[in-house]
Structures are given as C-alpha cells and as structure tokens.
Automatic annotation (TrEMBL):
Residues 1-58 form the 4Fe-4S Mo/W bis-MGD-type domain. One of its GO terms (cellular component) is membrane. This is Anaerobic dehydrogenase, typically selenocysteine-containing. SMART domains: Molybdop_Fe4S4. Keywords: 4Fe-4S, Iron, Iron-sulfur, Metal-binding, Oxidoreductase. The lineage of its organism: Archaea, Methanobacteriati, Methanobacteriota, Thermococci, Thermococcales. It comes from the Archaea. One of its GO terms (molecular function) is metal ion binding. SUPFAM superfamilies: ADC-like, Formate dehydrogenase/DMSO reductase, domains 1-3. NCBIfam families: Fdh-alpha. GO terms for biological process: formate metabolic process; respiratory electron transport chain. It holds the Pfam family Molybdop_Fe4S4. CDD domains: MopB_CT_Fdh-Nap-like, MopB_Formate-Dh-H.
C-alpha cells in the first residue's frame, strides 16, 4: 500500500508516497494528487533522499548523561519522571527560569502541546527557529497588513507577469516551488532578482540588482522614488486601501537612483528599469526570504518591501501578492500554534486580557500575561545565569544560532537540558536527558506549508527501537507534571487527531480544519478556515487588510548601515548561504551518502579581485576571522559575489563567525552581514583548526 506523506524538509510541502515492499521501503511520486504544490510528482534532491532518514544511528532509547556527551540508556518511565521532576522543581521557584523550544520540524499537534506545557507551567518563554528566520516577516507584515503570512499561493506566482525575488535563492532553497517561476517565464513573465550574489536563481533573471548586503531599505526606497516620480503607483488602491502615503512620499524623495546607486552599488539605470517594470506589471508577486529578513534592520526591510507591494496595488487579487517563503516544512504551523513568546495559538496576544481569560478557562489554569524570551535573548539570559533549564524539541542551536560559541556556553551553564530529537546532534551531546522521537515519516499529523496549506501526513514507516511520536512524549511529560484534567485541561490524548480537535476549538484560523477533512483531501486546506463547511482561503486581503482599520499601513523607513561595516581590521562583508542538497545543520541530509558525496564541504566564495588582494587561490584554503571566531574553508574564486563580499554556506558550522546582534523589534540576529578578514592557510593547518572547533563541539 502506498502511504501519502509530506516531505520532512522545506516549506514547499511536497507530497510523496512511501510503500513497504518485501525488499524494504520504496519512495514513489505523488503525481496523481491534483492541487498540491508538486502536482507533477517532482521532488528535489532532498525529497528524493527521504528514505536515508532511516539511517542506522537514529536515537532509539531515552538517554541519561553520566557526564557531558556520555550517556546510559534508561526506560521511558525513568526519563519522563526525571524530566517532570526537574521542570517542576525549577518552576516552583520561578517559572521564568524555564525556556522551551518547539520545532518547525515536527507536526502542528506536538507544537501546540509544547506551548501548552510551557504556559501551563506559568511561563511564556517559548520560541523556535522562526526567530532566526522569518520573525522579521511576521512582525513586519503584521505592522503593514495586519498578519504575518504569505498572502497568495504558488498558482499566483505562475500567473504573475513580473516576479521580484528578493534575498531569496529560490531555485536552491524552494526548488519545486521554483517550477512556478519557470512556468511563468515560459509564458513571458519577467523576473527581477535582488541578491548580492549571482545565484542559480539570478541565472533566470531578466533584471539583476546586485546590492551590497544590508542595503535593502535604500534599494526599496529607490524603487518607490522612481515609481512615485513617474506617477506609476496605483492611485486608486493607495487612496482606498492604504494610509501613510504622504509621509512615505516625503521620505523616498531623497532616494534618487543616483544616491541609491552609491549606497547599494546597483546602477541607477537598473533601478529605474526595475521600478518601471514592476509598477507597470498587470500582475506581480514579490517573494523574499533570508536575504531580507536576517538583518539587524529585518523588521524595517520587510516593512519597506511590503510598502512597495502596497503602493503598486500588487496584492489581494489573483496573480499578485506578498510571498515570504517559509523555510522549514512546518515553520508556518509552529508559528500559527503559538510557539512564540508573545502569542497563544492563532496569534492571540498573551497581553490581551480577553484572550488570556479565554485560555485560562480553556486550559483550566492561571496564565502569565508577560511576554516571554526569544531564542537568542534566552542565550544571553542563560549566560547571565538567569535561566535554569531548557526543553528543546527538534532544534540544533549549537550549529544554527548566530555566534554559536555563545550558544554552547549558555547551554553548558544550564542546570538541566532536555533535548528531543531523532538523531544524536551537537546539541543532544550537551543534554542531561535525550528523548528519542520518531521522524515525521514514522507517525502522523498535520503540518502547514508556506502557502498556509494544512496537509495531513500519514504514518508510513515503523519507528526504530523505542522512538515515540513527539505528541506522545510531550503529553507524557505533561501528565507526569500533574496536568491530568479531562479534555483541554490535561494531556490525556490518545492520538494526534485528538490534539488537532483541541486546536480546532481554540485557534480561529484552524477551526474548520478537522482531521477528518484533512485525511479525505490530500491537497489540504488553506487557513483561515473558520468553519467545517468553509473551503479555506488561498488568497488573503481581497477586500480588507487585517489591521484594525482594514487598511495597509505604509512604512516610511530610512536606510541605516548594517550592524558591522568593513574597516581596516576586518575589510570584507561575510554573508551565509545554503546549498540545494543540504538542510541546515546536516543532522538529516548529512546522513545521506548520496547528498554528502555531491555536496561534500563548504566553499567560501570570493571575487577574483579580492582573491588577488588577499592571496587566496581557487580550491586552496582560507582562514576566515571575525570579531567572534575563526573558521577554515576551501576557496571558490568566482564573479558570482560582488567585490568586497564573501559568502559561505553555514550548514557545517560557520556560525562561529556570525553576529548575534538583534533587530530591536523582531529580535532576529544579523546572520547575513558581518565584517570579516581572510587569509590563505595550508590544508593541514585548516584541518587542524576545524578539528579543534569540532572538539569544542561547535562545528559539524
Ligand atoms: N536546500 C535547502 N533548502 C532550504 C533550506 C536549507 O537549509 N537547504 N532551509 C529552509 C529554510 S528554514 C529557509 S528559511 C529557506 C531560506 O531560503 P533562502 O533565504 O533562499 O536561503 P539563503 O541562502 O540563506 O539566503 C538567500 C539569499 O540571500 C542573499 N543575501 C545575503 N545577504 C543579503 C542582503 O543583505 N540582501 C539581500 N537582498 N540578499 C542577501 C544570499 O546571497 C542568498 O542567495 O530555505 C529553506 N529551504
Ligand atoms: N548563519 C546562519 N545561521 C542560520 C541561518 C542562516 O541563513 N545563516 N538560517 C536560520 C534559519 S532560517 C533557520 S530555520 C534555523 C534552523 O535551525 P534549527 O532548527 O536548529 O536547524 P535544524 O538542523 O533544522 O534542526 C532541526 C532538528 O530537528 C531534528 N528533527 C527532525 N525531524 C524531527 C522530528 O520529527 N521530531 C523531532 N523531535 N526532531 C526532529 C533534526 O534532527 C535537527 O536536529 O537556522 C538559522 N541559522
Ligand atoms: S522542494 Fe522542499 S518539500 Fe519539495 S521535495 Fe524539495 S525539500 Fe521536499
Ligand atoms: Mo528558516
């Protein structure tokens, strides 16, 4: 029997089938399900390698540390009891001594349960990797449009006449979704790419705006300057559906193409051409990702781009929209279900008395109205000794957090660390208790892709050893903590379906998205879906925005330099990127022999002029240093990067270099621009440096 699952990697949310045969599990393409993002069945290299997750070194039994990194196997009963006792002890003293991490790598149901557990224990200290990712989108879009999600679907991208791709290496990071860009191009659509690197996505561009990292606001303002100067904004839309135009006009007046060229390095004529092309398009979509969001100005970056979309009226109708491409396969769902320090499920603010009273009644306990800590703030607090314990579900901050040496120090300072994962990782190594979870292919549940499409994924594979579903583990901890009330007042669940029914009852956007409906419809349902007879909402804002007055709030924001700019000591800008064949911290793709062979190691991309200046040779080794650390990598001399900029994929541990300075609103760290210096180093020395970092436990 072919079992339908959803790919456990990225936010495109491709479907595939897994079939058990006498010779083992087999992957098959879901080319017979109309309406899904990969209708023709296609998958990318990671999707094609999902069966490698059955790798032999999976976590199979709960583990208890004797000393750092040395574990003994324990029973589930013993592990759960210990976790509950330690959490209870700390919570009794001060619930805000605890920090919880949900996971964009597991289903909606366990995510709902982790935040419920944190909140029932009395703290809103709960967050997840969205903080390092699209937190500036969530905050920035909320300010402009009233809500933080993608406004349209992939089909709208296919229908667009102009697609602007901003700080998003779409072809490598959402490869199957990129098919919609190619289809649009085949129809004659024009593609504008904004990136400091000539990426695989830029190969497909008609207009390429190669800006310096961290200068996005200047560019967006320059585009708006040209549009307003030529009167190409959508006057009727601006009048009827937005507020703040006069102030915006005044602010962008200063951003002449010539001045913007000076700041961004993008030729003035190209700024003119891009602005006119975008504004004149009948239908246009802007997609964006980490190049825009991971900045100390991330919140303002997103507001500037959202404002550009609003003044041209490219929103709220088919073939148009604001498309932040969500990264992890269920990061949208984890945000929707309140794995954030400021909101309950459904983005209901913890500071809103009425919402809090609803959840107090629903869960039957008193709740905190104080906004909790975000991920990187938690690191800073833990370093000061103000946090006592972390419960981490499905994250690997030792490799993924900016300035990772700090993250490791913080984890080592804790009194108690529990990590729930499917593989041993650099983070489980520091844990007191490790809880073995089943992979998403080995249990069932709902998850939400970047288009707000909620899909059900079925259990296709038998889990290894004693690994258990994430929802089961969290509910066992909940019960052991004494939350044994009936219904929503406790953690007595028999299945993921039970949990989804509780989500239906307290999350307005998911009210009509029941397990029965999802199981019967493999293409899923787009939230908001307010009732069981509602078809779901693929396109947002057709009539009004979700701001209190229903209008888009245009943002007039000024360009400011990045947190760190090059100087004599650190003369280059370092940015961090991804490869199509690897996922994040390599815990999953690193176990696929095929992917590992094809994408063997990270390459530092350096412009030929900079290579000459700093004595680097193609395929030789470089030592890269920043104010936070040093790292070694092979060199790729290429004109793909702008002079003055070097780029490296972070999968293997480049976060020893990056800057953990935060955007003041969204609290995202600036992982896309910091100052660095480079020099040649011999292979033996390079490998020694990497070995040293590995021994410290900060690189993969
Ligand atoms: N293969 C693969 N796919 C993935 C992932 C993965 O790890 N591997 N991760 C998933 C996740 S969680 C996410 S969030 C997405 C991320 O998807 P993307 O955001 O597309 O990935 P990145 O390569 O991190 O960054 C995108 C681009 O930003 C550019 N950039 C750097 N600095 C700037 C800047 O200052 N301004 C602008 N405009 N651009 C800049 C970089 O050159 C890079 O090409 O991918 C998802 N898909
Ligand atoms: N320098 C730099 N740093 C970055 C970025 C960047 O562009 N540059 N990007 C940032 C972004 S966008 C993101 S999203 C973060 C990602 O940061 P993380 O979320 O920390 O990275 P992952 O490697 O995806 O970690 C997910 C963990 O979940 C585990 N896992 C997988 N499936 C399951 C499951 O079903 N259950 C459980 N319990 N565990 C599971 C995996 O083995 C893995 O250890 O990194 C951020 N860090
Ligand atoms: S595009 Fe994303 S969801 Fe689709 S197969 Fe690749 S990793 Fe999986
Ligand atoms: Mo992400």
């Amino acid at each position: 029997m072919k079992v339908p699952v959803v790919c456990p990697y990225c936010g495109v949310g491709c479907r595939l089938y897994i079939e058990q045969t006498p010779s083992g599990y087999r992957l098959d393409y879901a080319d017979d399900v109309p309406g899904i993002p990969n209708e023709n069945g296609s998958l990318c290299p990671k999707g094609n390698a999902v069966l490698d997750l059955l790798s032999k070194d999976r976590l199979r039994k709960p583990l208890k540390a004797k000393e750092e990194g040395k574990f003994v196997e324990v029973s589930w009963g013993e592990a759960i009891k210990e976790v509950a006792e330690r959490l209870r002890e700390i919570a009794r003293d001060d619930p805000n001594g605890l920090m919880f991490f949900g996971s964009a790598k597991t289903y909606n149901e366990p995510n709902y349960l982790v935040q419920k557990l944190a909140r029932m224990l009395g703290t809103n200290n709960i967050d997840h990797c969205a903080r390092l990712c699209h937190s500036s989108t969530v905050a920035g879009l909320k300010a402009v449009f009233g809500a933080g999600a993608m406004t349209n679907t992939y089909r709208d991208i296919e229908r667009a006449d102009v697609i602007m791709i901003w700080g998003h290496n779409y072809a490598e990071t959402h490869p199957v979704g990129f098919r919609y860009v190619i289809k649009a191009k085949e129809r004659g659509a024009r593609v504008i790419v904004v990136d400091p690197r000539y990426t695989r996505t830029a190969w497909f561009s008609d207009i390429f705006l190669q800006l310096y990292p961290g200068t996005d606001i200047a560019l967006a303002n320059g585009l708006m300057h040209v549009i307003i100067k030529h009167g190409l904004h959508d006057k009727e839309f601006v009048e009827r559906r937005t507020v703040g135009f006069q102030e915006l006009k005044k602010t962008v007046e200063k951003y002449t193409p010539e001045r913007v060229e000076e700041i961004t390095g993008v030729p003035a004529e190209l700024i003119e051409e891009a602005a006119v092309t975008f504004a004149k398009a009948e239908n246009a979509v802007v997609t964006w990702a980490m190049g825009l969001t991971q900045s100390v100005h991330g919140y303002d970056n997103v507001r500037a781009v959202a404002t550009l979309i609003a003044i041209t009226g490219h929103i709220g109708k088919p073939g148009n929209g604001a498309s932040p491409m969500r990264g992890q396969n269920n990061v949208q769902g984890a945000c929707d279900l309140g794995v954030l320090p400021n909101v309950f499920p459904g983005y209901q603010a913890v500071t809103d008395e009425e919402k809090r009273m609803f959840f107090e009644e629903f869960w039957g306990t008193e709740l905190s109205g104080e906004v909790g800590l975000t991920t990187v703030e938690a690191t800073h607090e833990a370093l000061k000794g103000r946090l006592k314990a972390y419960y981490i579900v499905g994250e690997n901050p030792v490799i993924s957090e900016a300035n990772s040496k700090n993250a490791v120090k913080a984890l080592r300072r804790l009194e108690f660390l529990v990590v729930q994962d499917i593989f041993p990782t650099e983070t489980t190594r520091l844990a007191d208790i490790v809880l073995p979870a089943t992979s998403m292919l080995e249990n069932e549940g709902s998850l939400t892709n970047t288009e707000r499409r909620v899909q059900w994924s079925f259990k296709a594979i038998e889990p290894p050893g004693e690994a258990r579903p994430d929802w089961w583990i969290v509910s066992e901890v909940g019960k052991a903590l004494g939350f044994t009330g009936s219904g929503p007042k406790g953690f007595n669940y028999r299945s993921a379906e039970d949990v989804l029914r509780e989500i239906n009852a307290c999350t307005p956007q998911y009210r009509g998205i029941t397990p029965e409906r999802l199981k019967a419809n493999l293409a899923g349902i787009h939230w908001p879906c307010p009732s069981e007879d509602h078809p779901g909402t693929p396109l947002l804002y057709t009539e009004r925005f979700l701001t209190p007055d229903g209008k888009a709030h245009l943002a007039a924001v000024e360009h400011r330099p990045p947190a760190e700019t090059p100087d004599d000591e650190y003369p280059l800008i370092l940015t961090t990127t991804r490869y199509v064949g690897h996922f994040h911290t390599l815990t999953m793709t690193g176990r696929s022999e095929l992917l590992r062979k094809r994408w063997r190691e990270p390459f530092l991309e350096v412009h030929p002029g900079d290579a000459r200046r700093f004595g680097l040779e193609d395929n030789g080794w470089a030592l890269i240093e920043t104010r936070r650390g040093r790292y070694a990598a092979r060199v790729k001399v290429t004109k793909a990067v702008k002079p003055g900029v070097v780029a490296i994929p972070w999968h293997w541990g480049a976060n020893v270099l990056t800057n953990d300075v935060l955007d003041p609103v969204s609290k995202i760290p600036d992982t896309k621009a910091c100052a660095c210096r480079v020099k040649p180093v011999g292979e033996v020395e390079a490998r020694r440096i990497l070995e040293e970092l590995r021994a410290e436990g900060v690189v993969a």
